[in-house]
Amino acid sequence: MSDSDSSEGEMGGMFVEPAEFNPPPPEPTFEIFTRAAKDKQPQEMKLRLVGSHPLWAHHLWNAAKVFANWMDDHPQYTVGKNVLEIGAGAALPSFVAAVNGANKVVVTDYPDNDLIANIQFNADHIIPELTKNGTVIVQGYLWGSNTRPLLAHLNPATNNNTDTTTSTPASAAPKELFDTLILSDLLFNHSQHRSMLKTCKETLKPGTGRAFVFFTHHRPWLADADNKFFEIAAAPVIDPPEGDESSDDERDLGGFGFKVEKVLEEKMTPMFLEDPGSEEVRGTVHGYILSLE
User: Fold this and answer.
1) Residues of the binding site for S-adenosyl-L-methionine
2) Which of 201, 209, 222, 223 could cross-link 205 (Cys pair, CB 3.0–4.6 Å)?
């Protein structure tokens, strides 16, 4: 019998995908961040980045680097504070907050196994002792969903509700809230501005708490859409009349009542030199602080 008379027949291999048709995902990469403050330890942090991801977690963004250095120069926002980061990516700012003496650091990103496992890997390798002793906690979190699982880390007695799909009732909100919130390079997610702000509103301590929003206009022609975040944040809260159903239309929802203050503008090399638009705009990191009365 010839080779062509094998059990597969002459067309036996026709439907076998060639190796290059469905290549394996890219391997993780590493990037070393060197802190600008030479008196800080560790002086370097080696971060693993996922090989590729649709949520752009495979980059260490300029905003994260700038904010990490800014925190080193402003320790009052981390020493002894309870810190929450949303959309953390590689989680550089969270790790800097932790080594600078934060009381508790809850590091979150979209509940995707690869993303969360990568953050946990970085935590275990960069700050192993702070991970082991419970100072740093890594978990998945969907912006705008129930914040009770986040707040339960500050209020252990309330950790009896694991449903992350519903809002946190104001009447049932835990007593302890976060002192410091970190949002690093998230504003390009225009459809998620309200979800981010909802999470901030429910988790930030009024009066003394601060939410830090550092970002770049990566698409200069959409800068107005990026900045819409701050318009919504600062607009007054509009409660619907009693008995009326709330609307999802931004014109009817009002805002979140945050005080907004710009604190930084720093020039960097653009993340993607080949992208269109002004290099100056694409290379500038902006820093804002949100607070609640």
Assistant:
1) 61, 87-89, 109, 143, 184
2) 209
